[in-house]
Design brief:
Order of helices and strands: HHEEEEEEEEHH
Number of strands: 8
Radius of gyration: 18 Å
Structural class: alpha+beta
Shape: globular
Strand content: 25-35%
Number of helices: 4
Length: 196
Amino acid sequence: MKKLTAFLLAAFFCAVGFSVQATTVIPPDFDSLVSRAEIIFQGSVTNVHSQWVGEGGQRHIVTYVTFKVDESLKGAPGASYTIRMLGGTVDGQTMEVSDGPKFKAGDHDILFVEHNGTQFIPLVGIMYGRYKIETTGSGSEIIATNTGIPLTSVSDIGKARSAATNSAQASAMSPAQFKAAISARVGQGASQKQQH
């Protein structure tokens, strides 16, 4: 039975691996990130729970990440919001989606969500839909990409950037600056829709 489970799991990994590799993520620019997102919010992770779902060859692991919503910037996430992602660890067995973000309780993020419950990673551009709120050594809060690189301008979104430097951290956007840019873009999108 264990061999069959291992075989089915390997077959699923191959299928997932193929579909993920066959899907090219085109990095969104800031306007696309905001316009494609159905929900944008700032929140703190309160719970991460992984479980097996499906039967037979369709059996796989999904992870539910629940956030306490601190501020809604687009859409109506409510006071608490849960995203469903493919992958996770259950009873020592791990499934991963390449470049998929990893969350833990206590993380503070600004998320750009699309197709939650139907898309394997329900964030715009997978890892491009998550921005971390990090605290620097001096105690100030900055915005960083999913990989931890400080975001110095919304025009940097979707562009390849090198590892964090002290100067990049010093010139990084604050959460307030990032949220103001998002709100302004959401407002522009709403007024454009009204004009059409």
